[in-house]
Design brief:
This protein has about 450 residues and is an alpha/beta fold. It folds into 3 domains: about 70 residues, no CATH class; about 130 residues, no CATH class; about 220 residues, no CATH class. It is about 45% helix and about 15% strand. The chain is built from 17 helices and 10 strands. The strands form 2 sheets. Strands 1, 4, 5, 6, 7, 8, 9 and 10 form an 8-stranded mixed β-sheet that branches. The protein has a two-stranded antiparallel sheet with strand order 2-3. Strand 4 and strand 5 form a beta hairpin. Helix 5 runs parallel beside helix 8 and helix 13 packs across helix 14. The chain is elongated and about 100 Å long.
Length: about 450
């Protein structure tokens, strides 16, 4: 064969092959077009054939005619899909990172720097603290070095980091002091404390069997809760011969249990801005708590036929920012006269109990006008407030007008003569209870003094 003839034959073969490929592409494009016309979804191969045979514009026109049927899972590509080898590498790196973190924080503890250890734990990001919480090796090595209250400190540090709520700090202090009463009161007042890590174990460790059992029973309590909300009330009585209007604020929380209604009043004590030295002492706080408990508790009962609920008042004194019902500025020494939100360090137990009465909605009952009509309309008191702020309203009998007024002999009146309470001193609590904590089908409850 001549060379020219061979070249010519080779050219014809190449041309034939090109025409075959074009035919194949065209057939694929036609098949793709028919698929669209018949309402079927284009395959990857069909799109590629159409693109090669007819160009991008044709692909765009056909895709616009695609049915709206969602693509199957097999039609989708996962750009982040990893091979088994890649997944194994990532898991290995993550496991090593956990080990490195564990060794880093334990180095302080195992090196004898307990305080530095807690500081490192608190400074960890939330995610890393969560990892350590579930790390059995971490806890095994921690418990080789410390126990009891120290282990609880680690648990709290991992749970809250550097943002421990004030009530958690107060609880930790009470448990460390072994203060059973303060511990149980805080848990009663702040239900979120029941979720503090390790609480049940540390209660069992720190308190004797009877006290621990009591606190654990408080933790297990349920009950329905209701915030009364801050509400102002007006009152009027004589001051230096002149009838003066005053405003009080009531605010508290109710908790209904099976046999008890708990009235929780959170009170923040803070030094008055004018103080040159701290005026809040443990001795004064203990005196005030004792006065409130002695004058208010064991006195009231709610009744609904044969059913009764003992009313228990729970003052919770706190010293840091946070959600409270009342704030009291404390002044040093005896000073002048105290009021609902300004006390003196030397105030007596009964004075604190009297001011506590204002916090749950009771007006003063001393220096009262003799009649409701004696209170001018310009003062803006409601009829109910006039009844609570007059001799006539409280006794049912009007008295002659004087410039000194009349005193009721009880805790909210002349309490230096008689510091006992009356059933009306629980009226505000009763009103809130009946409005929000009655069970379906219950009639209105009443309040009475226990005999």
């Amino acid at each position: 064969m001549r060379v020219n003839d061979a070249n010519e034959q080779s050219s014809r073969e190449r041309a034939s092959q090109r025409m075959a490929r074009v035919a194949d592409r065209t057939a694929g494009a036609v098949g793709a077009a028919r698929s669209v016309a018949q309402g079927r979804v284009l395959t990857h191969e069909g799109v590629l054939a159409l693109q090669r045979a007819a160009g991008n514009a044709a692909v765009g026109r056909l895709l616009a005619r695609q049915p709206t049927t969602p693509a199957s899972e097999d039609d989708l590509m996962d750009p982040f899909e990893l091979t088994p080898e890649e997944e194994a590498q990532i898991e290995a790196r993550a496991a090593q990172a956990k080990i490195d973190m564990r060794e880093r924080v334990l180095a302080a503890l195992e090196g004898g720097a307990g305080v530095g250890f807690l500081g490192r734990l608190r400074d960890l990001p939330w995610g890393q603290r969560r990892i350590l919480q579930a790390d059995q090796e971490f806890w095994a090595r921690v418990r080789k070095r410390i126990s009891g209250l120290a282990v609880w400190a680690v648990q709290v540090a991992l749970q809250y980091g550097t943002r421990s709520p004030s009530q958690v700090d107060a609880l930790r202090a009470a448990v460390h002091e072994g203060n059973w009463l303060r511990t149980r009161q805080l848990i009663m007042a702040y239900p979120d404390l029941k979720a503090v890590e390790g609480l049940r174990a540390v209660i069992t460790h720190r308190f004797d069997a009877r006290q621990a059992q009591d606190i654990l029973a408080v933790i297990a309590e349920g009950g329905r809760r209701w915030e009364a909300g801050a509400r102002s009330y007006q009152e009027a009585h004589y001051e230096a011969g002149t009838l003066v209007k005053f405003t009080g604020t009531r605010d508290y929380e109710l908790v209904r249990l099976n046999t008890q209604l708990r009235v929780i009043v959170k009170i923040r004590l803070q030094d008055d801005p004018s103080n040159k030295a701290a005026a809040i002492s443990d001795k004064a706080v203990a005196r005030w708590e004792d006065g409130i408990n002695r004058r208010w508790n064991g006195k009231f009962r709610l009744r609904n036929g044969a059913n009764t609920l003992d009313v228990w008042f729970l003052p919770i004194f706190v010293y840091r920012e946070g959600a409270v019902h009342h704030t009291v500025n404390v002044l040093p020494g005896e000073g002048g006269r105290s009021s609902e939100h300004q006390w003196h360090e030397s105030d007596s137990a009964d004075t604190a109990a009297h001011e506590f009465g204002h916090m749950i909605g009771n007006p003063d009952e001393y220096n009262l006008p003799g009649s409701m009509a004696e209170i001018p309309a310009s003062m803006g008191l409601s009829d109910a407030e006039k009844r609570r702020s007059s001799w006539e309203g409280l006794t049912g009998k009007p008295a002659a007008q004087t410039n000194e007024g009349y005193d009721m002999t009880n805790l909210m009146g002349a309490h230096y003569l008689d510091a006992s309470v009356r059933a009306r001193h629980g009226w505000d609590v009763l009103e809130v209870f009946n409005a929000h904590l009655r069970r379906p089908g219950e009639n209105a409850w009443t309040i009475e003094l226990k005999k």
